[in-house]
Amino acid sequence: MSILRELKQRKVFRVAAVYVLVAWGILQVVDVIGEPLNLPDWFSSITIVLLGGGFPIAIIFSWIFDIGPDGPTRTAADAGNSVGVRGGLEVALLLLLIVGIGWLIFRDITHGESEVASGSRAVPVVILMDTYADRGVYDEETRRKSGTNADVLSDMLSDLPIIIQKETIGSTWDRENQLLKQQPSLVLIHRSAFFHSMNQDLGVGYPTGSEDYSEQFRRLYEIADNKLVALLGFLSQGNRDTRFLVYSRGTGGGWPQEEYRAQWVRSIEGRFPSTEGRVTTIAVPGSTTEGSFRRPDAEALIRRTVVDLLAVDGSTSNPL
């Protein structure tokens, strides 16, 4: 008995076709539900590996056993069977089905890989994150318009060859996974964004004149700063290409001093080694009283830093 006849008798081709068809369907379902369910990126890879490993097992099982009304039984060879025109046509169609669906699976896999590869060469995505709280907005004009520092920065950087997205931070903000999926090249964030939002919502208030910081104020700032650090750690672990630019006018101690900022960065790197070499800090010129991104020196500092971090051409207009 020829091998082709034996494969047909044991329904190996039919099992292979059904398996490939079901596997392709499973991959489509995983692709559709991945984003709504926030499935991790490795879930699709694991699914492909498991389905690929199951294919030879299914083929071996179909060769050895025949599943009928009485359950799995060993297939008995039938020397009397012959492969006629109809049998040959059936085998050919099954082979075509296997090849066709296999090609669809291969195309889906390679298409996903090509998208990732092309994404790494795409225009950099920059996410501007800041608070809606008035106390965290640097200039009166922006406050009158109910805007944020991110609005000013967006206008300032709009001519660069980058994609700009703005993210307004509130005290209950929890969009870390959504940010991660955007695969940003740079996250530009106000160090006190979480604090100002939480302070406004909780009504803790700010010291006036020569008043010292209250214990409640200090505790709230510590919580907010910890939330910021945790965000940087989470994003750095989820995307190894994301860099961070943290700015402030000086709230929270000696931020204008370079050594203070360097120590702050070292503490982040000690907690989250994945952030090492990826966090840059700047002190907005003018300190807490006159600091604003509408100042020419502040605008020049931000633009120069963003251009250097992203290695983009700062002299060309945004083609988008």
Automatic annotation (TrEMBL):
<feature type="transmembrane region" description="Helical">
    <location>
        <begin position="42"/>
        <end position="66"/>
    </location>
</feature>
<keyword id="KW-1133">Transmembrane helix</keyword>
<protein>
    <submittedName>
        <fullName>Uncharacterized protein</fullName>
    </submittedName>
</protein>
<feature type="transmembrane region" description="Helical">
    <location>
        <begin position="12"/>
        <end position="30"/>
    </location>
</feature>
<keyword id="KW-0812">Transmembrane</keyword>
<feature type="transmembrane region" description="Helical">
    <location>
        <begin position="87"/>
        <end position="106"/>
    </location>
</feature>
<keyword id="KW-0472">Membrane</keyword>
